[in-house]
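TASK: fixed-backbone design
INPUT:
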């Protein structure tokens, strides 16, 4: 009976969530970033109309999308430029 209980415990696994090795390998390729939809001029505010999220990997995380809305562009951005800090 104890052996059966231990097997069930192993089958249930851990309650901690972590990426599998294959997910870690694909993270850089599949990661999304905030990018521009169109050209953004110096001192123009970021808005839902001029930024979006795309698979591009190296820019600002989509988790910061709403924090970026309303902020002022500190340089000129061309279409499809990554938004970085």
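OUTPUT:
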């Amino acid at each position: 009976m104890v052996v059966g209980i231990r097997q069930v415990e192993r089958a249930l696994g851990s309650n901690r969530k972590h990426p599998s090795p294959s997910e870690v390998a694909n993270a850089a390729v599949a990661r999304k970033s905030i990018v521009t939809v169109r050209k953004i001029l110096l001192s123009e505010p970021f808005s839902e109309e001029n930024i979006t999220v795309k698979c591009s990997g190296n820019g600002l995380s989509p988790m910061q999308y709403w924090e970026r809305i309303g902020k002022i562009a500190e340089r000129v951005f061309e279409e499809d430029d990554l938004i970085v800090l």
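COMMENT: The longest helix spans residues 2-12.
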